[in-house]
Input
Amino acid sequence: MKLTFIGHAAFLLEAGGKKILIDPFLTGNPVAKQKADEIACDYVLITHAHGDHIGDAEAIIKRTGATCVTTNEIAQDLGSKGIQAHGMHLGGKHGFDFGTVKLVLALHGSGIAGGHACGFLIETEGKKLYFAGDTALTMDMQLLRDVWGPIDVAVLPVGSYFTMDVPDAAVACRFVAPRYCVPAHYGTFPAIAANIDDLRSRVAKESPQTEVVEIAPGASHTF
Ligand code: NI
Ligand code: MN
Output
């Protein structure tokens, strides 16, 4: 499977023969090279409704006809804009034609009244990927591998200010014990600068089996 880092927290996962776009913040994203009116996708997954995550979702879904997967409150709001979305919620899992998506806890604002932020556990091509979304470090991260088995790839925010910082993300690696950690939500703006060499050395101590895979905005990595 191929994972492209669009920039900030936006990723394009190509797996199971489908293109899955996660947190499509492209317009106004200073590090994104792709444009919202050019990107192709079959699915759009939204962790929460802060502008740097829901981003261009409405326009992209309307143009591409992509299937949207998000929380119930965001799905209802998109419904009022003429978009039919899968309004799932925390703890829930659903099968799609590329694999399954489970909504997991993220400790963060929802960006919409009454909602919760979420992360995604995606199982596809026999691999398990954890997209943490925006979150603080939580003990609940330890549950992921306990209930879902070994995690292959964990995409974690590391930029601090709004989310975990580098030391917290290294502990999150110990809790999740993924084979690979992809850092996200850093470097987009000065307030969320992060030192990925520091992340590497901390992860080496906290979770020796985890390899940090830094993907530059616009670049891809095949897992
Ligand atoms: Ni946020
Ligand atoms: Mn954010």
